[in-house]
Design a protein that fits this description.
single chain, three-stranded antiparallel β-sheet, alpha+beta, 14 strands, eight-stranded antiparallel β-sheet, 34% strand, Glucose Permease (Domain IIA), 18% helix, 228 residues
């Protein structure tokens, strides 16, 4: 459970008690009580099994994949995966790879519907760039926490120079929102538009292994006529 859930729940429980004491109306007390239960549910933070393996890129959030596109940036060609988080999804964000936070950039902006492609550039957002370490060495990934029509607060717990593990909790977007992740152009996608993903648990993409590696078993290939 995210701490915010307790804060909202306690507030509405107090309101429910006050309504009951002042009005003696059960119905007026039920409304804030239901809101308290909703916020406890909304700010849930379930445990996740994090995939292991070299070059795997996991989802930074729960939700629906709405876009997988090749884009051109000042840094070169990249792949972008967009994930829409409705009010029914878990809103805790997780690191897509293990590595060092090399850059955190906050941008003020609008609150367009997160399903609108323009929200990727125009909405309020935090962009976090990670440089891979360990199993993700040499990989650089940027993911964005993007505010939506209802989401009015982005919580980013990353600071430059910080080291995070793959799947580690790194922030939160309150209510409906969107997360984008920018991948190298040669990343092999494991999802498509319409798929539902879970933060920290679903593999969005994998980096190709060297040509001398057998992808099926992860052991060196033996060329015809060669020796083991």
């Amino acid at each position: 459970m995210v701490r915010d859930g307790y804060i909202y729940a306690i507030f509405f429980l107090v309101v429910a008690v006050c309504c009951n004491v002042l009005t003696h109306s059960l119905w007026l007390s039920v409304i804030p009580l239901l809101l308290a239960v909703f916020f406890l549910w909304f700010f849930r933070d379930p445990q996740r099994t994090i995939p292991t393996g070299k070059g795997l890129i996991v989802s930074p959030g729960d939700g629906l994949v709405t876009e997988t596109a090749s884009i051109t940036t000042p840094e070169g060609a990249l792949r972008r995966i967009s994930i829409f988080l409705s009010v029914f999804d878990v809103h805790v964000n997780r690191a897509p790879i293990g590595g060092t936070v090399s850059r955190v950039h906050y941008q003020k902006g609008q609150y367009l519907n997160a399903m609108n492609p323009a929200s990727a550039e125009r909405n309020e957002q935090s962009a976090i760039t990670l440089r891979g370490l360990g199993a993700d060495l040499g990989l650089e990934i940027t993911f964005k926490q993007i505010a939506g029509l209802l989401a009015r607060r982005i919580v980013c717990r990353c600071v430059e120079g910080q080291t995070v593990e793959r799947g580690e909790r790194v922030g939160l977007i309150k209510f409906g929102s969107r997360v984008d992740i920018l991948l190298p152009a040669n990343a092999e996608l494991r999802v498509k538009v319409g798929d539902r993903v879970k933060g920290g648990a679903s593999v969005l993409a994998a980096m190709p292994r060297p040509a001398d590696q057998d992808l099926s078993v992860g052991t060196p290939r033996i060329p015809p006529g060669g020796r083991a």
